[in-house]
Design a protein that fits this description.
Length: 129
Amino acid sequence: MPGETVILKPTSHEILSLQAIHGMLSFKFSDLCEPSTATLDYLELSNSYDHWVISGNPDAETMTAFGLRRLAKLIDVLYDREIRLDLLVTADSMASLHHLPPSDAARLTSRLNALQSPATSPDTESATA
């Protein structure tokens, strides 16, 4: 039933999902990236779900290094598998990239830019305004 939380166990970790229906998963950042999850969890879930939504992303001051690293690994998986990601962030969420080594921060920034849809691109917004 829509609106009900679901506990998923793709491998050995339980992950709380806000919604898991019709090929779409919805998570709070704190449920997906803060607990102990692994890349294998993301790979397994990506076999069945082709649209992911992550909300409640912390701002730069409260983002943890572990949470950001897990988010970066998740984005790598979704990017490589060409899976849609709706990442709901505050304006300063990406200021937390200082938690990552410079090469990882650059890769994450590049992948986020590549995943950004034309409808949400700042260039598109200014061009249609």
